Amino acid sequence: MEGPWDEATQSITMPFKKISRSTGQERDMKEVYRIIDEDNRDYWRSTPLNPKTGKEFKMLNVKWTRKEIKTHQNADLISPPSTRTAAP
After folding, report:
1. Fewer CB atoms inside 10 A, N or C side of the chain?
2. Is 24 left (phi over 0), alpha (psi -120 to 50) or beta?
3. What SS3 string covers 12-41?
4. Which run of H or of E encompasses 11?
């Protein structure tokens, strides 16, 4: 999927089509990925039209927040996964 970046809202909107499991018909959908700040992201998927009301509604909303990692006294002995090597 791809879509335009909106600098004003710090978001990208990605339209796509999906086959409805209940009706078997193709439906227009979109995903919006918004950057709140460096530690938070907000993402949701919505369908442009509710078949009953003809209005867009939000089906899913997920907010990611980075967790602060607490260090301990032996933090220098722990390497992040990207720097670990397999034993010979």
Report:
1. C
2. left
3. EEEEEEEECCCCCCEEEEEEEEEEEECCEE
4. strand 11-19
Q: What is the DSSP letter of 48?
A: S
pLDDT tens, per residue, the chain with 88 residues: 789 999 998 899 988 888 888 888 888 888 888 888 877 777 777 767 777 787 888 787 788 777 766 665 655 555 555 554 555 5
Residue ranges of the domains in the chain? Answer: 5-66
C-alpha distances out from residue 23 to 27, 29, 30, 45, Å: 10, 15, 19, 19
- CA dist 72 and 68 (Å) reads 13
DSSP letter, residue 55: S
What pLDDT is recorded for position 6? 93
Distance CA 63, CA 74 (A): 32
Q: Which two tokens stand for residue 2?
A: 């791809």
Q: Measured between alpha carbons, how far is 70 from 47 in angstroms, rounded to an integer?
A: 40
